[in-house]
Amino acid sequence: MKVTVSIDVPSIEEGLAFFSAAFGFGETARPHPGYAVLTAGETTIGLLAKPAGTSPAKDSDDVRKYQRHWTPVHIDFRVADFEATLKKALDAGAISEQVHRVPGYPPVAFCSDPFGHGFCIVGLSTLDQKCCS
């Protein structure tokens, strides 16, 4: 099984600009004008162009909002160079909401992207570096 996370963004161009600058994603396919596939290393995400104010589902009273919002699902970017990745994300337009640097544990930054979606940047632990790098 292969899992791809798709992210609603106001426009493909805005999403591509952020995820490229922050995490090094590049567009690898555009199977539809409103959907782009981005890849960085072995990671693939999808961007869906969904303008603010549009309905997320048939018969829903809710609308898409691109200011900060809460969702129970978010992406963790597990990275070897925590400080450099956090700086790149902030320079690209992310907001750092909280950073934890606890001795003996990998650092974690709770952030949001320019579209209001929460995500975390997590430094690799010793275990990650042995088995997953």
From TrEMBL:
It holds the Pfam family Glyoxalase_6. This is VOC domain-containing protein. Residues 1-124 form the VOC domain. It comes from Noviherbaspirillum humi. InterPro entries: Glyas_Bleomycin-R_OHBP_Dase, Glyoxalase_6, VOC_core.
